[in-house]
Specification:
The structure holds two protein chains of two kinds. By secondary structure, chain A is mainly alpha-helical. Chain A is 74% helix and 0% strand. The chains are: A mainly alpha, B mainly alpha.
Chain lengths: 148, 141
C-alpha cells in the first residue's frame, strides 16, 4: 500500500461511517427533545444543521455501499454524483415532510422557514458530497470498482 | 438520425423554456397559479429522461449494470439534485437581484416546497415509464 493511501486510511477510518450513525441518532434525539420542550431549541439550532449534514452523509454513504456489491463497472465521478443525488432525494423528502408539519402545527414560523429549509438542504448536500469524496477520492478501493 | 428520446428531450426543453420566457415576459402570466406547477412537473420529467439518455444512450452504459430499483431511485435522485440546485439559484437570484427590482423567483416556502414536490412527481413518472420500457426490452432478450 503506498504511503499516501496508508496516511489517508489512518485519517479517514471506516469506523467514521458508524460514528456518523451515532452522531445522527444523538442529534435526532436532541431534535426530538427540542420538539417536546425537554430541551431549548435555540441551544440546539446548530444541531439541526449538523443532523442534516450527518443524515446526508449516512444516506449517501449507505446508498453507495449498497451499490458497491451490485455493480463493478462505473466511473468514480459518477459515484460522487450518485452520492450527491441520493442525499438530495433524502433531503427533499425530509423537507417536504417537515414543512407539511409546519403548515399545520406551527404556521406562525412559516415566514422564517424558507432560509431554514434551504440551509438544511445545503447541509444535506454537504454531507452527501463528503460521502461521495470519501468513496470516489479517498477510499475508492473500498468499492472494488473496475477503474476507468 | 437522433433517437426518439433525444427528440423528446429537445421538444420538451423548447416547450418549457418558451413557456417560461412567455410567462416572464408577461405574455402568459405566473398569476395562473398552476402554470408554475406544470412547468416544474415537466422539468422533473425532463431531468429524469435526460439522465437516462445521458447514461444509457450518450455514454452507452448497459441498463443491466443497474439493479431495477436503483434505476428508478437513481433517476429520481438525479432529478431532485438538479431541482434543489435550481431552488438555490432562485434564492440567490432573489437575494442579489431582488433589491434592484428584479421579479422575485421564490414567493414563499409553500411555493418552494410545491416546486420540489412537482419536480419529484415529474421525475417519478419519467422513471417509472423508462423502467417499464427498459424492463420490457430486457425481458424480450
Amino acid at each position: 500500500m503506498p504511503e499516501s493511501r496508508r496516511l489517508r486510511a489512518r485519517l479517514v477510518p471506516e469506523e467514521h461511517l458508524d460514528i456518523g450513525w451515532i452522531v445522527l441518532i444523538l442529534l435526532l434525539g436532541a431534535d426530538a427533545g427540542g420538539y417536546v420542550n425537554w430541551a431549548n431549541q435555540h441551544i440546539f439550532s446548530y444541531s439541526d444543521k449538523t443532523a442534516n449534514f450527518c443524515g446526508g452523509f449516512v444516506l449517501a454513504a449507505s446508498a453507495v455501499r449498497y451499490y458497491e456489491f451490485r455493480s463493478k463497472n462505473i466511473r468514480l465521478d459518477l459515484v460522487f454524483i450518485f452520492a450527491l443525488a441520493f442525499a438530495s432525494l433524502g433531503g427533499v423528502l425530509h423537507e417536504l415532510w417537515q414543512n407539511w408539519d409546519y403548515v399545520y402545527l406551527k404556521p406562525d414560523l412559516l415566514p422564517f422557514m424558507l432560509t431554514d429549509t434551504l440551509t438544511d438542504l445545503i447541509s444535506v448536500l454537504a454531507g452527501g458530497a463528503l460521502a461521495g469524496l470519501y468513496y470516489a477520492v479517498w477510499r475508492p478501493h473500498k468499492l472494488n470498482l473496475k477503474q476507468h | 438520425m437522433p433517437d426518439k428520446i433525444y427528440l423528446f428531450l429537445t421538444a420538451l426543453l423548447i416547450l418549457i423554456l418558451a413557456t417560461h420566457a412567455l410567462a416572464l415576459g408577461g405574455f402568459l402570466s405566473y398569476g395562473i397559479w398552476w402554470l408554475d406547477l406544470v412547468l416544474h412537473f415537466a422539468g422533473g420529467t425532463w431531468l429524469g429522461v435526460f439522465v437516462f439518455w445521458y447514461l444509457f444512450r450518450h455514454k452507452n452504459y448497459q441498463v443491466g449494470i443497474l439493479p431495477a430499483s436503483l434505476l428508478v431511485v437513481g433517476l429520481i435522485s438525479f432529478a431532485m439534485f438538479a431541482g434543489v440546485l435550481w431552488e438555490f439559484f432562485e434564492f440567490s437570484w432573489d437575494y442579489f437581484a431582488g433589491p434592484y427590482g428584479a421579479i422575485l423567483a421564490q414567493r414563499s416556502l409553500q411555493d418552494t416546497m410545491s416546486d420540489l414536490l412537482f419536480d419529484f412527481l415529474g421525475a417519478l413518472v419519467a422513471a417509472v415509464f423508462l423502467f417499464a420500457l427498459e424492463f420490457r426490452v430486457l425481458k424480450r432478450y
